[in-house]
Amino acid sequence: MVARPVPADWLALRRQADHRARESAVELLDLLTHRLQPGDADELVVVDVGAGTGSNQEWLAPRLPGRQRWLLVDHDEELLAVDSTVEATADVTTERAVATVDDLHTLVPRGRHVLVACAALLDLLSTGELEALADVVAPADAEGVTALLSLTVTGEVDLYPAHPSDAPLADAFDAHQRREDRPGPDAATVMADALRRRGAQVEVRATDWVLGAEDGELLRRYLDDRAAVAVEHDPDLEPLAHEWRAERERQLTAGVLTVRVGHLDLLSLPTTTTTTATATATAAAEPAQTGP
Ligand SMILES: C[S@@+](CC[C@H](N)C(=O)[O-])C[C@H]1O[C@@H](n2cnc3c(N)ncnc32)[C@H](O)[C@@H]1O
């Protein structure tokens, strides 16, 4: 499947809104930390899939306990090469691997002190890739690992004030997200089902973006991209999308537009527990490429 590159400037624009949204699901971290229970001597291995320019690590690393060894995984070498905002310390070290979701079985170690993480990834994946990720997190033949899969879009987008063209543009946008066997806006549900089928305990919390006048730059880009994707899916929508975008711009400038973009965070906990397994029980294979 051909994946579109994700622009680095889009990741920079959305970073603050992502971090703000995740505060509403911060209780998942209590459950996660309780499960991981790292002792002083233990190192937590975090594999961040679709890491991009490192936003997930920036938010999550300070909220996780103890020593951490991060592996940032992405199929886009250029995004991975962007300098990390997370300082390397004795407690937090970072490696990088140019690899895909399908390579994860060779990159994720087994053990109690292992966390698979991602942010804003699931809605981009095909059904096969979601199943591959579920197999790594909750394998049939071994104890699973903990996973925190964040910020998956749900397709629920509420614009206020409403506009008659919101619905046809949303339908076209969502249909585009569902192209080539991607569940798109159903990805969080598909993933939760896949993990539960494999015996994992899954907790789900809303992590919606709530954007207003103070998020002008992000909102402008979000609306531009939404209109462009809808028109790409159905070129007949061009005049309607143009008029809609102009009206939304007037509202943005007047400071009267608010947008809620639905997202979900999933925490997956293995149901069987052992007290002796460690992150290094099975060593991770060497990353395909390591960086600073
Ligand atoms: C929307 S971006 C999110 C990036 C980052 N997690 C963040 O929160 O800013 C999705 C990322 O997933 C990567 N990606 C998409 N499909 C992938 C796949 N199948 N395997 C590995 N990385 C993938 C993209 O290159 C991109 O960096």
Q: Please tally the β strands and state the result.
A: 8
Oligomer: single chain
Helix percent reads 25-40%
What is the CATH architecture assignment of the domain at 8-153 and 182-208 and 263-269? 3-Layer(aba) Sandwich
**Corresponding CATH superfamily of the domain at 8-153 and 182-208 and 263-269:** Vaccinia Virus protein VP39
| CA-CA gap between termini | 30 Å
CATH topology of the domain at 8-153 and 182-208 and 263-269, which one?
Answer: Rossmann fold
| Elements, N to C (H/E) | HHEHEHEHEHEHHEEHHE
Query: Mean of residue pLDDT?
Result: 90
- Could you give a short account of the major beta sheet? 8 strands, mixed
The whole-angstrom Rg is: 20 Å
Q: Low-confidence segments, ≥5 residues, pLDDT <50?
A: 273-292
**Distinct compounds present:** S-adenosylmethionine
Strand content: 15-25%
Instruction: Please state the overall shape, judged from the principal axes of the Cα atoms.
Output: globular
Written description of the protein model:
The protein is an alpha/beta fold and 292 residues long. The protein has a domain at 8-153 and 182-208 and 263-269: 3-Layer(aba) Sandwich (Rossmann fold). Helices cover 37% and strands 22% of the residues. It has helices at 8-22, 27-36, 55-60, 77-81, 104-107, 127-137, 166-177, 187-197, 216-233, 238-253, and strands at 43-49, 67-74, 92-98, 114-119, 146-160, 201-206, 209-211, 258-269. Strands 1, 2, 3, 4, 5, 6, 7 and 8 form an eight-stranded mixed beta sheet that branches. The protein is globular and about 60 Å long. The model is unreliable at 273-292 (pLDDT under 50). Bound molecules: S-adenosylmethionine (SAM). S-adenosylmethionine binds at residues 3, 6, 11, 18, 50-52, 55-56, 74-76, 79, 100-101, 119-121, 124-125, 129. The site of S-adenosylmethionine (SAM) has 21 residues, from helix 1 and helix 3.
